[in-house]
Design brief:
By secondary structure, the chain is an alpha/beta fold. It contains 15 helices and 17 strands. Helices cover about 45% and strands about 20% of the residues. The relative contact order is 0.06.
Length: about 550
Amino acid sequence: MIDETGRGSAAILIVDDVPANLLALEAVLQPLGHRTVAARSGNEALKALLDEEFAVILLDVTMPGMDGFETAQLIRDRNKTRSVPIIFLTAVQSDALFVSRAYERGAVDYLTKPFDPDVLRAKVSFFVELYLMRERVTQLAALEARQQEAESARARLREVLMQLPVAMAVTDGREHRVELTNPSFIQLGAASESVGRRLREVFPALAGDDEELDAVYRSGQPLARHERELTSAGADGIPARRFVTYSLQPFRGQDGTVVGVIVCGADVTREVLARENERRAQSERERLLGELQLALRSRDDFLMVASHELRTPLTSLQLTASSLVRQLERAGGESLPAPLLDDRLRTVKRQLDRLEQLINALLDVSRIGVGRLELELERVDAVEVVGEVLARLRDEAARQNVSLRLEAPAELTGSWDRSRLDQVVTNLVTNAIKYGHSKPVDVSISGDESDITLRVRDQGIGVAVEQQHRIFDKFERAASQRNYGGLGLGLWITRELLVLMGGVVTVESSPGNGATFTVTLPRNYAGVATASRAPSETSTH
């Protein structure tokens, strides 16, 4: 009903046999500012429809006696109430049979309990607006009949449509030619010159195909489409996703026959995209949680491995110290034999070196992780560095029956951090000795004007192709820790150091045929000499 001030009010019929449900629905709809009428059965609902008009009916399906489907059928059988929109409310799973029965009984929509209050208010508000719009149209038509001023009535109807907050178009005749549009309809994406053209030509996506328009025109029954996706060109010409909710309502002449179709729509893109963004945000939160849990498991695994690796040299040191104490006690103050002391001190030296390597590796992980690993660049002879590393590792290689062979020119200089270059070569050669199965390790170095190339080849267990992508990750290895110790950091640290110096490291290998690690390093890298990369998620072959 439209009052003298031009404000609209409507009645909403709520039908449910459970009093608590009626109270809940009234509370949900109260913010709309329209009157609600409650009915506890189908018979009460039919009586209420005899007394007054309603903008929309919220009808429960499951009720004792006359259920929702029967009530809807009787409403549709009455001329007076045939066009009142019905939204079914059901707590039953909405399968295909339910949906089919609902639309056969003239439903325009349905909601499954429990429902979203905002969604229910939006749907009811939409049909109330349609009802109020029909009230306005009816009043204008009555005014036209009373005043016999057809042109004046048409102008007033046009003015009403122009001011409606929803997009609207009115078609005329069976060909659905546009008779009237409002600015909101144009803003929704329709052609600015629409009058006189078929609606499908003006905005085919909004109105669906001609079958929908024909069905409403023939049957006089409204039809609604919820959140249909459109694709339209944005201001930059790039296709943009849009979503609209619209309704097709029959437009009747003075004699009650359908003479056209009223199209009412609203852009709901913001609401739909907001839900999609929330789903993506939730997915991202779940992904980050998974990564955090994985990182925590990796941390725990690393702490376990680090404890084991640190305990090994400490145990050896403790046993060596205990052995020396016992030897001194048995010697009764006499000096111990030099060969014995030499052997024990060499053992202590090896274990202290091992501890130093482990601690340095842990410190490097920390520095790289927080971006505080700095390089001290200077002119360095790479051949000299490689030679020093091999000389230092010959005793370790000899203990494992591994011979180290070097092929290199007289000199290859460049601008590098000497200690970090030494660390890269040491990690690769130590890696080759560990996994080389007591076979020779070949080291070669060559270069041109811009880069040097270092190759370290062993003839050991090799690395499967599917493992090669991850052996450079933190705490990763291709071989079992049970057979080969270590923190799983050597190759990861090697890769990170090379990245800082502008280099790369790759591996070529297959199981049982050894592995060849190739380092390519620019001779004069101009990058920033500070570790600023984010730490890798997951080190050694």
